[in-house]
């Protein structure tokens, strides 16, 4: 049975327009998307009209605090919205709905974006649609890549999950037991004082490409779940021993046993990536076997890492007709267009939020969302 996505179409209008607001972490994004009437397919793709983003960057060695991040979002949201409307050649009154990230994420930044969404809703008399951040990543990934029913690896600064669709829910098959992979990489970047611009994870990836010695680190997979806090603590201590700045303590030197060469910060970045990504590949492969799938879709900011994509591709090649799907940084990294897309799918099935029901939440599980627009 095919879900009717046009029962709420406006008479005489052959398309839908939605504006999406994303601000669950340090990236503020606004996107405008267009759906033509009918089922989305290879011949009826969603059309990205604008996808504007601004990132709150902190100095090397520092993370981003909720209060400061929220201030950044409040300072920039009006300018970003105006820019998105101009780029998309759209007026506010042309839109069908306003979509916003309802969670999960950091409380203060989320609240800043919710207030902006409510304001636009009242200004233009448009319905509001709250969107789960992860669902936005998944649906945008499916739309951009054309993946039909893949196992989803969702890897970002705040989330690490292996997901598969079943019975109108995105079910979580495995996840982190403590910190997310993006958080692990970002915190190690702070230990090494790696710059946060354009992103600490990206800078670690570039350093890892120069590494050639694999340092022994813990490998912590527990069934379908994984743990990364112990790995981070271990490599943090190694880095402090090697590169500590205390003048009264002579820094240790770690030597590669095979080559006799000293271990560098590039080697540590390389080693951390290899271990973490190997763990992700293992639990993803186990999920593929469980649901009998041969497709993997990687979403989330860490999903743009070329080494992760390469390792996942090597694994999927062993499966018959195996395919891996991933998007570039425009759609992998948090953005407003994914919120607009997922929100518009909700709107087209009659799901909207009354004003009183637009409270954001820091904890919003992926499998809490009823996927009304899918019935396959």
UniProtKB/TrEMBL annotation:
GO cellular component assignments: chromatin; cytoplasm; EKC/KEOPS complex; nucleus
Stored Pfam families: TsaD
Gcp-like domain residues: 48-340
Subcellular location field: Cytoplasm; Nucleus
Positions annotated to bind a divalent metal cation: 133, 137, 154, 334
Transmembrane segments: none
Principal subcellular localization: cytoplasm
Entry-linked PANTHER family: TRNA N6-ADENOSINE THREONYLCARBAMOYLTRANSFERASE
Keywords: Acyltransferase, Cytoplasm, Metal-binding, Nucleus, Transferase, tRNA processing
Protein name (database record): N(6)-L-threonylcarbamoyladenine synthase
Residues noted as binding substrate in the record, renumbered to the chain: 154-158, 186, 201, 205, 305
Co-factor binding details: Binds 1 divalent metal cation per subunit.
Required co-factors: a divalent metal cation
E.C. code: 2.3.1.234
